[in-house]
Design goal:
By secondary structure, the protein is of the alpha+beta class. It contains four helices and four strands. The protein has one domain: Trna Endonuclease, Chain: A, domain 1, CATH 3.40.1350.10.
């Protein structure tokens, strides 16, 4: 399945940020003991951070795996789970109203 652009950008940004802190970042990493893949796994010192990046649509589609990863992290004192919501910018209400009220151009 192809990842939406907003998610891919967020993953790239997060990866760069964590690597900039000197942490090891794994992308699309298998989380041992769960059989699931996480968008990012960040390791540094004694702590592990599991990150899932989703938009509203992919969150609905992948709800069960997101919950399973969160529960896995919850049961471990050395692991944290973060869910990052990456939704595209929506047009302002006034912009939508203007676009809907414009007359079509006839040629």
């Amino acid at each position: 399945m192809r990842r939406p652009l907003t998610e891919a950008r967020a993953i790239a940004h997060l990866r760069k940020s964590y690597e900039g802190l000197g942490l090891r970042v794994e992308v699309d990493s298998l989380v041992a003991e769960t059989g699931l893949r996480a968008d990012l796994v960040v390791r540094g010192g004694p702590k592990t951070l599991i990150i899932e990046v989703k938009n509203s649509e992919s969150l609905q589609q992948e709800h069960d795996s997101v919950v399973a990863l969160a529960r896995y992290a919850e049961g471990r004192s050395d692991t944290r789970f973060d869910l990052v919501l990456a939704n595209p910018k929506r047009r302002r209400r006034s912009d939508r109203a203007t676009a809907q009220n414009e007359a079509p151009v006839s040629g």
